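Task: sequence design from structure.
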């Protein structure tokens, strides 16, 4: 399957829904809380499922549960079906989230085509962190967030403006060592997340770009969740999902212009029936 345009969006969504349902059941079995977020939450409210043109699933998880996820996954999940993947000292997935990936599929993004990583179709688990009360500490947290995103993603940002693009290019050009990059972003992640969420009234997502970093949400929305239908399955959403969506999207029930109703990911190759491992040296990690 070489033409990504021939892969029906509905088939991609079906695979992601299977991962999401398994993830929901896993979290319930092991005492982890999450909520749908971003366009996935919007889809639950406006479409009772996926936004028709959307090709990703995003969920929020409070930092305390987020840090438990990978260890619990390694011990209790069906790892023959799904992998829990997070950037670390030895691999970089060019994404600040943890990804729950289907081992038996292929979804190769353009930004990772040269990387020897897991290329299965995925859902994204995004940590949210407590915001300190001090204005000075808030400023430092934002600086650490920028450092974290630059050296964690390790790719030039799309659609973020020329200033951010050139700043990222310069920083990555100066610091080329993978080990040093890891130490920089891991230190920044530790500092920005040190406040926890137990004693913070507000939380934010600090790995998703400057616009989203500045959005503030009451912590309670992610402790006392609501439940909505999503493609025939009950899924958790922020407790006050209406206010969450207004902060995130404004008039969220208004459909975007037709020309903007397109998938987000820039996939270069998709195969929903075969493992990505089949395509190493063919569609990713190709020798030049």
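Answer:
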């Amino acid at each position: 399957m070489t033409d990504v345009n021939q892969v029906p969006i509905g088939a991609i969504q079906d695979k992601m829904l299977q991962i999401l349902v398994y993830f929901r059941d896993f979290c319930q079995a092991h005492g982890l809380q999450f909520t749908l977020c971003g366009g996935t939450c919007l889809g639950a409210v406006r479409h009772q499922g996926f936004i028709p043109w959307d090709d990703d699933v995003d969920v929020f998880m409070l930092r305390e549960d987020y840090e438990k996820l990978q260890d619990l996954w390694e011990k209790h999940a069906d790892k023959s079906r799904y992998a829990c993947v997070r950037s670390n000292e030895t691999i970089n997935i060019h994404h600040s989230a943890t990804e729950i990936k289907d081992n038996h599929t292929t979804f190769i993004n353009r930004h990772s085509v040269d990387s020897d990583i897991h290329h299965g179709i995925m859902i994204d688990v995004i940590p949210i962190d407590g915001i300190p009360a001090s204005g000075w500490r808030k400023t430092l947290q934002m600086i650490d967030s920028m450092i974290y995103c630059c050296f964690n993603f390790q790719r030039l940002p799309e659609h973020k403006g020329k200033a951010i693009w050139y700043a990222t290019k310069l920083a990555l050009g100066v610091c080329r060592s993978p080990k040093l990059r890891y130490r920089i972003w891991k230190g920044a992640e530790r500092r920005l997340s040190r406040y926890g969420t137990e004693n913070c009234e507000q939380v934010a997502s600090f790995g998703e770009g400057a616009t989203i970093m500045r959005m503030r949400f009451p912590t309670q929305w992610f402790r006392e969740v609501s439940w909505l239908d999503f493609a025939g399955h009950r899924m958790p959403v922020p407790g006050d999902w209406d206010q969450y969506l207004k902060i995130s999207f404004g008039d969220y029930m208004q459909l975007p212009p037709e020309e903007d109703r397109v998938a987000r990911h820039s996939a270069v190759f998709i195969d929903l029936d075969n493992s990505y491992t089949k395509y190493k040296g063919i569609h990713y990690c190709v020798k030049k």
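Residues 132-194 form one domain.
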